[in-house]
Automatic annotation (TrEMBL):
Belongs to the PhnJ family. It comes from Rhodobacter maris. Its EC number is 4.7.1.1. This is Alpha-D-ribose 1-methylphosphonate 5-phosphate C-P lyase. GO terms for molecular function: 4 iron, 4 sulfur cluster binding; alpha-D-ribose 1-methylphosphonate 5-phosphate C-P-lyase activity; metal ion binding. Catalyzes the breakage of the C-P bond in alpha-D-ribose 1-methylphosphonate 5-phosphate (PRPn) forming alpha-D-ribose. One of its GO terms (biological process) is organic phosphonate catabolic process.
Length: 289
C-alpha cells in the first residue's frame, strides 16, 4: 500500500457516511438512499459508485475480486483491481469462491455465492422509472405511493409490439412486495440469482448519488403477467471452450466471413470447468461436455 493514500483512497469520514447509507439501504431493501458521492480518480460511468461502496466496505483482511461483464481481464476490471491493490494493499483473486468482496459490472457470477460474501454492483442509472417518467420529483412520489402501473404498461407494450417482453437487461424487479428496483444492467438471465441470495448485495450509483441494497435471502420477484411469465434467456448454444450449457454466453466474431464462437461470459467459471477436464467444441481435442 502506498502511504500517500488513506486506506482504500477515501478518507475515514466519507467511508463512515457511506456505511451509514448502506445500513439504511439494507434496512429498507430496494429503496434508493441518497449519499454524498465523491469525485474519484476515474470518469463517471467507469464505476465510481461501485468503487466508493467497495472502498467503504474493504478491510485489510478482505480478498477482492473485480469483474466486468463477467470477465476478470478487461480494462475496467484490471484498472479497479490495481487501484485497490495500490491504495489498500488487499489480496486479490480471480476465483469467485475465494473472494470475500466482489465488485461487478453487469453480471452475477455463475458460481453460487455464500454467506459472508458481499457483491457490489456498478450502477449507471438506479431509477427504474427514469425512461418512463424523467422528472425525479414524480418518480419519488410514484415510489412513495407504490404507483407502478406505468412499468406494467411498458411491459404490456412490449408484448403488443413483439409478442413477448423484449427487455433483455436491467429487467425490473419488485423487492419484498414493496419497491420496484432496477437491478443494474445485468442480463435478465441473472435475475433469478437476485432472490434468496445468501450474499449481501449492494448497488452504488456514483453519478446519481444513490445506493440501494438487498440483504441476504431477500425475496425478489420479476415483474411479469400470468399469461406472459418471466423467462431468463441466453444464447441457444454451448460454450465452445468448456462445453457448459447452463452459463450465460458471449458471442465472438472470429473472422471476416462471419465465423463465430460462443464462450462463457464468466471467465472464472469457464476456466474452472476446463481445469476439471470439461472441453467444448473448439477446445483442443474437445467435445461439448
Amino acid at each position: 500500500m502506498t502511504e500517500a493514500y488513506s486506506f482504500a483512497y477515501l478518507d475515514e469520514s466519507t467511508k463512515r457516511m457511506i456505511r451509514r447509507t448502506l445500513l439504511k439501504a439494507l434496512a429498507v431493501p430496494g429503496y434508493q438512499v441518497p449519499f454524498a458521492s465523491r469525485e474519484m480518480p476515474m470518469p463517471y460511468g467507469w464505476g465510481t459508485g461501485g468503487v466508493q461502496v467497495t472502498a467503504a466496505c474493504l478491510v485489510p483482511e478482505d480478498v477482492l475480486k473485480v469483474i466486468d461483464q463477467g470477465a476478470d481481464d478487461t480494462t475496467n476490471a484490471v484498472s479497479i483491481r490495481r487501484f485497490f491493490q495500490r491504495t489498500a494493499g488487499v489480496a486479490v483473486t480471480e476465483h469467485t469462491t475465494e473472494a470475500s468482496l466482489i465488485q461487478t459490472r453487469h453480471r452475477i457470477p455463475e458460481a453460487p455465492l455464500k454467506e459472508g460474501q458481499i457483491l457490489i454492483y456498478q450502477v449507471p442509472i438506479p431509477e427504474p422509472l427514469r425512461f418512463l417518467e424523467p422528472r425525479e420529483s414524480e418518480t419519488r412520489k410514484m415510489h412513495a405511493l407504490e404507483e407502478y402501473g406505468l412499468m406494467h404498461v411498458k411491459l404490456y407494450e412490449d408484448i403488443a409490439r413483439h409478442g413477448a417482453i423484449a427487455t433483455s437487461y436491467g429487467y425490473p424487479v419488485k423487492v419484498e412486495g414493496r419497491y420496484v428496483m432496477d437491478p443494474s444492467p445485468i442480463p435478465k438471465f441473472d435475475n433469478p440469482k437476485l432472490s434468496g441470495n445468501p450474499a449481501i448485495q449492494l448497488f452504488g450509483a456514483g453519478r446519481e448519488s444513490r445506493i440501494h441494497a438487498l440483504p441476504p435471502y431477500t425475496r425478489v420477484v420479476n415483474l411479469d403477467f400470468e399469461d406472459h411469465p418471466f423467462e431468463p434467456t441466453k444464447a441457444d448454444a454451448a460454450c465452445d471452450l468448456c462445453g457448459a450449457t447452463t452459463s450465460y454466453l458471449d458471442e465472438v466474431i472470429m473472422d471476416d466471413a462471419g465465423g463465430r464462437m460462443f464462450c462463457c461470459s464468466d471467465t472464472d467459471f469457464c476456466a474452472t470447468r476446463r481445469a476439471a477436464g470439461h472441453a467444448g467444441r473448439l477446445a483442443p481435442g474437445g467435445e461439448a461436455a
